[in-house]
Amino acid sequence: MSQVLIEVEHLRKSFGGFRAVDGLSFSVSKGEVLGFLGPNGAGKSTTMKMLTGFLTPSAGRARICGAEISDDLLEVRENIGYLPEGAPAYGDMTPGQFLRFIAQVRGYEKQAANKAIADAVAKTQLQSVLDQPIDTLSKGFKRRVGIAQAILHNPPVLIMDEPTDGLDPNQKFAVRRLITAMAKEKAIIISTHILEEVEAVCTRALIIDQGRIVADGTPAELIARSRYHNAVTLEVATGDADLIRQGLKEIEGAGDISEVAMNAASKRITVFPKDPETLLIDDVAIVSTEKHWPIKSLYAEAGRLDEVFRSLTTSDAGEQGAVS
Amino acid sequence: MKQMIAVLRRELVGYFATPLAYVFIVLFLFSMGAFTFYVGNFYEAGNADLSSFFGFHPWLYLFFIPAISMRLWAEEQKSGTIELLMTLPIPLWSMVTGKFLAAWAFTGLALFLTFPIWLTVNYLGDPDNGVIFASYIGSFFMAGGYLAIGSCLSALTRNQVIAFVLSVVICFLFTVSGLPLVLDFFSSWAPKILVTTIASFSFMTHFEAIMDGVIDLRDIVFFITLISLWLTVNAIVLDQKKAG
Ligand SMILES: Nc1ncnc2c1ncn2[C@@H]1O[C@H](COP(=O)(O)OP(=O)(O)OP(=O)(O)O)[C@@H](O)[C@H]1O
Ligand SMILES: [Mg+2]
């Protein structure tokens, strides 16, 4: 029995005549990590701002842990941990002072506050900078202060706008692990531009474009929509490419074939199945052994999320990026 | 209430985190002294009272108070921390009052530090300390009035300079509306009731009444009402921002 903690219905936000968010509906249950994907300006941050009560929706409704955002904002805010875009924090305070302020506002008594702060600091590995003014911290540490602030009161709902932006690879890994570890107990929404992050932490992803949901599914389902799903790629010497391409064409079920030069000496040939559910890998492997093709590597593609993303979204970046 | 105190404390930490607060206090005390002793001819006047000192307060506040209040909300909007603050479970009025009280306490501290002037006058003569005490109270409430105006106007913009200029202008209007110069201009044509209304909104009118040594409840009530009104508008302005 999953418990729905975030329910959103037909949420809309207009700025003047411009619809930044245009009728979003979704829900997030306890245990789910929902990823917001979408080009710049898609409306991800605006949606989060509405859920946390920073902006009032133009239309539609949302419930957080059963409370309507339109009538009980204070209760809603108590149940949410929020990392706003850019992780704003009071630069003149140290992380220690800042987290104490958050704990006080959240109603912690001294003892409990100490414990909650120590906990959040440990989870975000902030020990080394606790007494350094936030203004003088590096971007990654600032982001971690923002995350610490959001998780301090162990909220049932966690909303984080680009939590790993600006983090080094180790910290990205640490934060993803932290999110995964917390996921069981919470409903979490994150937004990200890092597609591999979706596969790494999200149980579900929404691709948002121009304020609308254009895709909704598990990372595996989204990847399956890729042209590359079940395609087979071979890495071969440039001299052998023509011969091999001919051979691949003759395989039953094979459709388009594309070629990418990797360097002067080698090429990567990808053969796409005509029907996306056909598994070509066996046939390709058999043919290549029979014909003794000199192959450097051979593998089946799961699909590429970036390609799905580009084909579904319409920003200027998406337009030219479509697969060749 | 707890949250209001948390906001208040955070704001005070903000003041003293940089040397700016100390620079401000030094400048404030220096100006107070300079105006009282040189411009106000404190020694030559030969009176053992502080009326020349307090007489300058409205004019000094006109510039010093907006310098304190300009950052209250403009800075939050500029740095984006307003999004953090407004998404914490703090009632809007607690934020507005907490910040205001912090600024008021800071001003109170600056005002308190003028006590050497009071010591001087007691050393030189035998002033009516009751009047001086009343004047301090009046000055403090007047400062609160200016601060509330400044706080509200600071919520209108993310630019501190704009907030400062706006506040100086509006505070100026609330100061001069009781001066004979302004009132004469109105009394030549406007009905008497309008003239008295304009005069009654003047900080000067109420402050001078207190400076005479009688703390009339009505004058204090005036400042408290004015502060509440401006802070209410302040909260409304902030609430309006949610519409985007
Ligand atoms: N206060 C505002 N007034 C006017 N337009 C706004 C306002 N806030 C956001 N917008 C517009 O709404 C659209 C959505 O913005 P939003 O910040 O939600 O995008 P996003 O999906 O978070 O993008 P990014 O990936 O760049 O963070 C943008 O076109 C933006 O310019
Ligand atoms: Mg954004």
| Uncertain ranges of chain A | 316-324
Ligand list:
adenosine-5'-triphosphate, magnesium ion
Into which percent range does the helicity of residues of chain B fall?
over 70%
Order of strands in the sheet with most strands of chain A? 6-7-8-3-9-10
Q: Could you give me the name of the CATH homologous superfamily of the largest domain in chain A?
A: P-loop containing nucleotide triphosphate hydrolases
Portion in beta strands of chain B: under 5%
Helix content, binned percent of chain A: 25-40%
Kindly report how far apart the N and C termini of chain A lie.
45 Å
> What is the count of structural domains of chain A?
2
Under CATH, the topology of the largest domain in chain A is which? Rossmann fold
**Major beta-sheet overview of chain B:** none
Q: What is the 3D shape of chain B?
A: globular
Spans of chain B of 5+ residues with little confidence (pLDDT < 50)?
Answer: none
Number of strands of chain B: 0
Mean pLDDT of chain A: 88
Question: Which secondary structure elements does this structure contain, and how are they paired or packed?
Answer:
The complex is a heterodimer of chains A (324) and B (244).
Chain A: E1 4-15, E2 18-29, E3 33-37, H1 44-51, E4 59-64, E5 67-68, H2 73-78, E6 80-83, H3 95-105, H4 110-124, H5 139-151, E7 157-161, H6 169-183, E8 187-191, H7 195-201, E9 204-209, E10 212-217, H8 219-224, E11 232-237, H9 241-249, E12 254-261, E13 266-273, H10 281-290, E14 295-300, H11 305-312, H12 316-321
Helix pairs in contact in A: 3-4, 4-5
Chain B: H1 2-17, H2 20-39, H3 42-45, H4 51-55, H5 57-69, H6 71-79, H7 81-86, H8 92-112, H9 115-124, H10 129-154, H11 160-176, H12 180-187, H13 192-200, H14 203-211, H15 217-240
The structure holds adenosine-5'-triphosphate and magnesium ion (MG).
Magnesium ion binds at residues 44-45, 85, 161 of chain A.
